[in-house]
Amino acid sequence: FDTISRNLLGFSFLLGLFIMFISLFFVSNTIMLVIYSKKDEIKTMNLLGASNMFIKFPYLLEGLILGFVGGGLMAEAIIKGCLDKQVLSPQEIRVVDPSEDRRIHLSKTFDIQVYEEVADAINHADIIIIATKPQHLEEVSSQLKGIIESNQVVLSILAGIKIDTLTQLSLIHI
Questions:
Q1: Per-residue tens of pLDDT for the chain, all 174 residues
Q2: Which residues pair with 150 in a beta bridge?
Q3: Cα(first)–Cα(last) distance of the chain, in Å?
Q4: Is the CB of residue 131 less than 8 Å from the CB of residue 75?
Q5: Cβ contact 158:104 at 8 Å
Q6: 79 CB-near residues (< 8 Å, 6+ apart)
Q7: Is the separation of the CB atoms in 122 and 148 below 8 Å?
Q8: What does pTM read for this prediction?
Q9: C-alpha dihedral (84, 85, 88, 94), degrees to nearest 10
Q10: 29 phi and psi, to 5 degrees?
């Protein structure tokens, strides 16, 4: 029985290694195909004098999820810019707003995901943009406390609100 158990464990280990190598093979080939398909575009940008960071930046953002807390005009402008410049796809943008009219407008205009609850919009978001009116900051901060994860980046576009205020409200950690 002990020999069968050891053989089964060894076989499982080898099978796991095989699956890992196959997965790495497919992932690396997929990345190479994406780069190859963008070869002409990258070459053109190089010829036009684009910096390496300018060329790499859209690829770094690919697959990120952006969560907006507040769907007002400032958030709408950022969303429009990201979608118009094809920096993000509609599936990568989530917005929470208390106004049903704003949620309907943003959903119909940009075909993005909209939510009524803060936790739903920022769950699994890589970048959280706080885009509410400054007078709503305390209410929003109480909803955000305890749900912002350490791996999430928090940006604020609140007019007149200093970093110290965001730190005191436990929205960011310096």
A1: 788 888 888 899 999 999 999 998 988 888 778 778 888 888 898 899 988 878 777 766 667 899 999 999 999 999 999 999 888 899 999 999 999 999 999 999 999 999 999 999 998 899 999 999 999 888 888 888 888 888 888 888 988 888 888 787 777 665
A2: none
A3: 57
A4: yes
A5: no
A6: 68, 93, 95, 106, 110, 112
A7: yes
A8: 0.67
A9: -40
A10: -65, -40
Tokens, residue 101: 């009219």
Q: Which residue has the tokens 């398909």?
A: 37
The pair of structure tokens assigned to 145 is: 């406390």
Element (H, E) at 25: helix 2-37
Do residues 73 and 133 touch, judged by C-beta distance below 8 A? no
Tokens of 85: 């410049």
Residue at 124: amino acid letter: H
Contacts of 151 (CB under 8 A, 6+ apart): 126
What is the DSSP code string of 92-137?
A: GEEEE-S-HHHHHHHHHHH--EEESSHHHHHTT-SEEEE-S-GGGH
* CA–CA distances in Å: residue 49 to residues 41, 44, 53, 54, 55: 13, 9, 12, 10, 10
